[in-house]
Amino acid sequence: MASFVPSSVTLRTTLGLVALALLLLPFADIEITTVAPWRELGRLLQGLLTPDFTELDDLGTALLRTLAFAFTGVALGVAIGGLLALVFHHRLVRAGCAFVRAIHELFWALIFLQFFGLHPLTGVLAIALPYAGVFAKVYAEILDEADPLPKQVLPAGTGMLSTFLFARVPDAWPHLVSYTAYRLECGLRSSAVLGFIGMPTLGFYLQSSFAQGHYSEVGALLLLFYGLIATLRLWARPQLVPLYAVAAPFLLGSGLPIVWGNLTRFFTQDIVPAPLRNGEGWAALGQWLSDLLLTQALPGLWTTVVLTQIALVLTGGLALIAFPLISRHFTSRAGGVAGHTLLVVARSTPEYLLAYVLLQLWGPSMLPAIVALAIHNGGIIGHLVGRRSNELTLRPDASRGMNRYAFEVLPRLYGPFLALLFYRWEIIMRETAILGILGIATLGFYVDSAIQELRFDRALVLIVITALLNIGVDSLARALRRRLRLKHAASSEP
């Protein structure tokens, strides 16, 4: 592996991000407001150590529905994304995919709830739609990096689909399978979180148990979920995944019936701005938009940016601390197993779920969101960087301890680390916005409030602003990767 010595531009960029986070820190509310946070944390840890598996029927139903929503949503996303990857070179397709993937699954779920209600279709589409945008982008990148020779030797006039199946897919197949497996793990996390808005998945039962103070039930649900993620490669083998995907729709349950009139009303009335719906004219529309921007969009944007930047820097710091836990250059085999287990727990716990738990323990502030985002994303980056460090070959006389870390290993891994951090930037921004549903005053807080008040026109404008913000951050991160000549990390994430 070629070494990477951080350049002055790279170091200035890093210091700039850290300085920005420090400048924004005074504007962040990071107080702990609960009376006895450590006592509650102790009760939660006791619940993890003494899990209650007596309610096996409920636990089994939660896991089964979590799996069903994940496999159905991801399978539909793969099908749509695979087709879009064929035409991803068209600007309109790229723009459409960027928009749908910039909106978090929970925002899509909140939208679909308005006209599908608590029906399985709400959860499936909430996962499938943004995942289709992600699959289209990453599949197209993987296919573009494939060997072009098979395509060049095909007979003239070979159709697009035949070219795709016989000349492009075979060479890219291992990477396509690897990335799809990674997104399946993400789908399981997304499916679990859908329970917090009423879908019958793990989050629904976990929220109920937590609200009642049944920490042993919380412990059982969390341990089952961690076990599900940790053993994913054992039971989700490629030859079995199609079987799971076919069976999953039949395990979603029936839910409440769809009232199709709600769909018509949503598009013809609910999302039409109130001034136009009430016949007040375009002047009133301008005032309506101005009030919405000043009282909700701009405050939500500011909080979202503040929280994101602090969480981004903390994520990077935790990843740099965490990767030696699984690196053969710093730990023994037994230590590596323990480190791997710790990082599996960190990266397997959805940010929304972890933030919800920390909010119960510490009270409402930005602190639970910052810590939740940093732990989850730091675990992901730390795992990937640690795995990459195992590919390094050091000199026989290489130094040990901190000198090995600072002078032998970190300089060669800093480029991939920074690429991954910039790749996660937009994801952290998306998650920051959605954490507003938990009461933190990010854009998601105002979106959720508008939906609760049945002001869907306001909610739609705020969701579009959220998507544009995410697209802007993603564009900035890609520009920085190009400037610093960092390898794009999306397709290599798993």
TrEMBL record:
One of its GO terms (cellular component) is plasma membrane. It comes from the Bacteria. It is found in: Cell membrane. Keywords: Cell membrane, Membrane, Transmembrane, Transmembrane helix, Transport. Gene3D superfamilies: MetI-like. Its main location: membrane. The chain crosses the membrane at residues 62-86, 106-129, 218-236, 243-260, 301-325, 427-447, 459-477. It is a multi-pass membrane protein. Residues 63-234 form the ABC transmembrane type-1 domain. GO terms for biological process: transmembrane transport. PANTHER family: ABC TRANSPORT SYSTEM PERMEASE PROTEIN P69, PHOSPHONATES TRANSPORT SYSTEM PERMEASE PROTEIN. This is Phosphonate transport system permease protein. It comes from Modicisalibacter ilicicola DSM 19980.
